[in-house]
Amino acid sequence: MSLGSVPLKYKVTIDREQCMHCMRCIDNCSYGVYHKEDDRIIIDSRKCTACHHCISMCPRDAISLKERPVDYRSHPLWTAEAREDIINQARTGKIILAGMGNAKPYPVIFDRLVLDACQVTNPSIDPLREPMELRTYLGKKPSRLEIDKKDNGDIELKTKLTPNLKLETPIMIGHMSYGAISLNAQLSLAKAVEKTGTFMGTGEGGLHEAIYPYQKNMIVQVASGRFGVDINYLERGAAIEIKIGQGAKPGIGGHLPGEKVCQDVSCTRMIPLGSDAISPAPHHDIYSIEDLAQLVRSLKEATEWKKPVFVKIAAVHNAAAISAGIARSSADAVVIDGFRGGSGATPKVFRDNVGIPIEAAVASVDQKLKDQGIRNKISVIASGGIRNSADIAKSIALGADAVYIGTGALIAMGCRVCGQCYRGMCPWGIATQRPDLVERLDPEVESEHVANLIRSWTLELSELMGAAGINSIESLRSNRSRLRGYMLDEGTLDVLQVKPVGA
Amino acid sequence: MEKVEIDAKGMHYTPLNEMIREAVRNGAKEIILDNVIGQRFIADGLKADVTIRINGVAGGDLGMFMNGPTCIVNGNCDHAPGNTMDGGTIVIHGSAGDAAAHSMRGGKLFVKNNIGYRGGIHMKQYEEERKPVLVVGGSSHAFLGEYMAGGLILVLGIGQEDPAKDRGIGSGIHGGMIVIRGEVKDELLGVGARKAEFGEKELEMITPYVEEFCKYFDTEPSGLLDMNYTCIVPASTRPFAGKYTWE
């Protein structure tokens, strides 16, 4: 007996009265939902991923889409998704692959934190007429400054400062590799960070020649696969990031399927054409915090101690202790990637079930570093599920120096979070290497969209800071008195070190 | 300035590397490091046409990210010599620790005696001109050539009864070739690795590296240039292609 097929996920319909038969839906759908039979457009809803490209390109707004048009017998435990996953795995015997971030309805802690605002006794600041300082320096800060006073009255700084990364806004774009996303998508992000005075990560896919003009805004990544890593790559980056873990898949490595390793990706990663690009879970020269320190120092030694080195870990329950180790490893920043962080491809069971929320991880990391008296030795970067400027302000108030955004930047370029990135057919030209799809994305236009997003969130941050009576981002950092928890349990409030509303 | 001598006694690796870079900038073609005792990262990221003679025991990550130099170690070497090396040659007149030639993507590493675990792990290759080569005179330990994506690992087993007696050879290998002197038991092969015929073509391929090894260590190649080798290659360039299904 066959298991049969599961019901389709989405139902696409065309309003035939509205439709002008322009056939743009056929041209636009890379998944093959539409085809033409005689003069009629035929719809195969089963192929639909809800990417919305057809809807956004339809000149008559004739296309409608509904999620899950077929009901199952309702059951609180055996949801439709649970049943369909079992059918899928019973049929294939394989691991279910997924894209984007955690898709389970866990409560969002950010949404249960509220920011404070000044009223009478400590007046708020008007960002329209008062300067607001959002410039952020990432890297080690000295415990104290030693100054030498000369006889002629001049003063000289005796303390040797460690190289820091200078950001005009505490918002950066996280690592999305060339291979996982298209070159045009990377170019758009690169142009956007140059326009806004911030930085982006290359991901573990190396640095394509087309990105060289933006290398001063690039954080180059070294993952266990060491793709595209050579001394020139390290020297090009403004900073270097060692990727240990990723929020969407803590504890496992990365894997770019051979289908996406086209000629250009093969050249940039320096691997054979069409072969799988495998980044295993561990770095095979790191089995302890001492080994990690050795990799950090080897990267600094290779680049003559001129560049900050970051270490990225997934948010897991012992992230605080690990970060304290990282702070002692010569690293300049630790990136904590929360369990809502995105991914081009990850086993669904990891995406939806492994890791902890970024809010709790950042707060516990910040607290541990402060408790040990080493908070100045390292910067903290929060990433994974940052959706708006309020999330950024809350992240910083919980202890982050800056944030990485990922999915938000993709949405600014058109992404509709359909979660099919691993199939390489992204109709928006983002998570694909198919030339006809890549060329749909215009780096000039999309870089402006991404830059606008960063600008608008930066403006909102200024307003939020001003309302809280703060004129410098440094005064917001780890300033948990500006936060209150609403409908959060006592245990979570304790981890966050945040008081409940009304307290 | 053709030749520079540096006494590394008691010296931290950073000033040592600074002195090496300074010598290279001043045109040194040969640098001799005396009294090396465990300094890490020697020649880390160094881009130059220079020969560095290391008298003593080199510490971890010798020649990491290096591109161009020749490092000759008159002694043993700690872990991961040639780590993510891009180009150049490392010759070790002794043994090396774990993860020798880790992620090496070009250049050659010759070890006179033995290496530890995970030798040649993640070695990768981009087209024919960037082919990394690891040649081990003695034996290797477990997970030799794990996740190997390109290049050549050659284990000669000189003076060894069993040059590769540990398990996991070529686990996850999806490119390149591992050649081991003598027979290798099937149960020692990792997932994704398979034995292939060692024929005249393969012998021709390894001959220049055997000869180069013998030149460095003053050994006679004739006893090594025969068909007594086992060749291990990937079962597929896509080892995990069948592991996943769509959401």
Automatic annotation (TrEMBL), chain A:
EC number: 1.4.1.13
InterPro entries referenced in this protein's UniProt entry, alphabetically: 4Fe4S_Fe-S-bd, 4Fe4S_Fe_S_CS, Aldolase_TIM, GltB, GltB_archl_type, Glu_synthdom
List of residues binding [4Fe-4S] cluster 2: 29, 48, 51, 54
Domain 4Fe-4S ferredoxin-type: 10-38, 39-68
Top enzyme category: oxidoreductase
Keyword Ligase applies: no
Family matches, as CDD domains: GltS_FMN (cd02808)
Any one GO biological process: glutamate biosynthetic process
Catalyzed reactions: 2 L-glutamate + NADP(+) = L-glutamine + 2-oxoglutarate + NADPH + H(+)
4Fe-4S keyword on record: yes
Cofactor dependency: FMN
Record key words, sorted: 4Fe-4S, Amino-acid biosynthesis, Flavoprotein, FMN, Glutamate biosynthesis, Iron, Iron-sulfur, Metal-binding, NADP, Oxidoreductase
MF annotations from Gene Ontology: 4 iron, 4 sulfur cluster binding; glutamate synthase (NADPH) activity; metal ion binding
Binding site for [4Fe-4S] cluster 1: 19, 22, 25, 58
Record family assignment: Belongs to the glutamate synthase family.
Listed name of the protein: Archaeal glutamate synthase [NADPH]
UniProtKB/TrEMBL annotation, chain B:
One Pfam short name: GXGXG
Ranges of residues in domain Glutamate synthase alpha subunit C-terminal: 22-184
Organism the protein comes from: Methanococcoides methylutens
PANTHER family: GLUTAMATE SYNTHASE ALPHA SUBUNIT C-TERMINAL DOMAIN-CONTAINING PROTEIN (PTHR39673:SF8), TUNGSTEN FORMYLMETHANOFURAN DEHYDROGENASE, SUBUNIT C (FWDC) (PTHR39673)
Molecular function terms, GO-annotated: oxidoreductase activity
Protein's UniProt name: Glutamate synthase alpha subunit C-terminal domain-containing protein
